[in-house]
Design brief:
The protein has 13 helices and 10 strands. It is α+β, with helices and mostly antiparallel strands.
Length: 413
């Protein structure tokens, strides 16, 4: 019976991933990201001594029904008292002559410009779904004649991006994967709840250390997989999850174990009701993580933050978020925690498994230290749950509840 349920859960997860993968590809085909060359807004004087009335900064051709956003970046600090009110940015469709936006570069708008890697940028428009097909252009229009003999040069860049919002039919793939993953997590707690005596030969350190090094090496190697974009992000996450499961099997074979009770696998939690409290634990950890995101400053933007800016990326992160927790728990709170606990005790197991879990997530949160702190908080909670119950199942369920809250919130924006 357990084998049938296990196979069913894997089939459900696989179906959701195939469904979600095709949806990611479809969304990526509709996504456009255009950055114009840097251009000077210094008015060009024509032969009659006047200023050119407008200057096109760039254009993009979204599809009917796409959403469009516009950001203007400045390469240097802006002299508010000299530029405010002189220029407005117009977003329009040349073929239909429909104006989508007129945004004056007044003092309030220019003051909203935030520092980014490209310069100082301000978002001017986030359009709803376009009701007309065709190219969309952005222009700078001078609304007043410059009142200075030598106007200061202002270099600007137009950033236009368009995308199709993910449809509910595409978002349901996340729910399908989540259902399969929850079933897998519950099956981890299918077994006896008696305490298994320690084996006569505790696990050796070398295989555990080798497994961690292989996992980190794989994490580095998957960055070179020739799969670009959002789909590549999902493929890399699945490759790491598969590596974790293979390493767990290899560790079990090396130890010649006939059951996996000392790893917290096939082991009912103690007490039994901890499995039903686990989702609440995951939600409480999510609240703590949100506080960390708010209070801990960041020095950069994480890879995940960049990815979820696009619907395809948000869907890829959501799918990975509800798929990989079971593999992570089996590796970090199962093989690693269980092996170290049997040889050096619970405190050492807690410290080492939490450190390894946090380091494994460091590349995707580098610079976003609030996100890194959130992962440490969550990892500590999962490890304590594993220590309390003696089973991986509650920590896997809590991990899924935590990630599902983040994932579903991101994909349904």
């Amino acid at each position: 019976m357990r084998s049938i349920l296990f196979a069913t859960a894997l089939a459900v997860v696989a179906s959701g991933l195939v469904w979600g993968g095709t949806s990611i590809v479809a969304l990526e085909r509709r996504e456009r990201d255009y950055r114009s060359p840097w251009q000077s807004l210094q008015p060009t004087v024509n032969g009659q001594g006047g200023a050119e009335p407008h200057q096109e900064l760039g254009r993009v051709t979204p599809a009917l029904g796409d959403r469009l956003s516009l950001e203007i970046c400045f390469s240097q600090e802006i002299e508010l008292n000299r530029w405010a009110g002189m220029v407005e940015i117009v977003l329009w469709q040349p073929e239909t002559r429909q104006i989508l936006l007129r945004a004056p570069l007044d003092e309030a708008t220019l003051a909203r410009a935030q520092p980014q890697s490209e310069g100082r940028c301000v978002v001017l428009a986030r359009q709803g779904e376009l009701d007309q097909a065709g190219p969309v252009a952005v222009e700078a229009v001078w609304t007043a004649h410059p009142q200075w003999n030598s106007p200061p040069e202002l270099n600007v860049q137009a950033h236009l991006w368009s995308y199709a919002p993910s449809a509910p039919s595409q978002q349901w793939s996340v729910v399908l994967v989540l259902v399969g993953a929850v079933l897998l997590a519950l099956l981890l707690g299918w077994g006896r709840s008696t305490v298994v005596p320690a084996p006569s030969r505790p696990p050796e350190l070398a295989p555990l250390l080798a497994a961690c090094l292989l996992l980190f090496a794989t994490q580095f190697a998957v960055g070179y997989l020739p799969v670009p974009g959002s789909l590549g992000g999902l493929v890399r996450a699945l490759a790491l999850a598969a590596t974790q499961m293979v390493l767990v099997v290899a560790l079990a074979k090396l130890a010649h174990r006939r059951d996996q009770s000392d790893l917290g696998l096939s082991q009912a939690p103690r007490p039994w009701w901890a499995l039903w409290v686990a989702p609440l634990v995951g939600l409480v950890l999510w609240v703590g993580a949100q506080s960390a995101l708010h209070w801990v400053p960041s020095t950069g933007e994480s890879v995940v933050t960049t990815l979820v800016a696009w619907p395809s990326g948000a869907l890829a992160v959501a799918l990975a978020g509800v798929c990989v927790p079971v593999a992570e728990e089996v590796f970090f709170r199962g093989a690693l925690f269980g092996g170290i606990e049997r040889r050096w005790g619970a405190t050492t197991a807690l410290a080492i498994s939490l450190t390894a879990f946090s380091v494994a997530h460091l590349p995707q949160t580098w610079g976003a230290w609030g996100g890194m702190t959130a992962i440490v908080i969550a990892g500590l909670g999962f490890s304590l749950l594993r220590l309390w119950t003696g089973s991986v199942a509650p920590s896997a369920v809590a991990h899924l509840a935590y990630n599902a809250t983040v994932a579903l919130g991101g994909v349904l924006y």
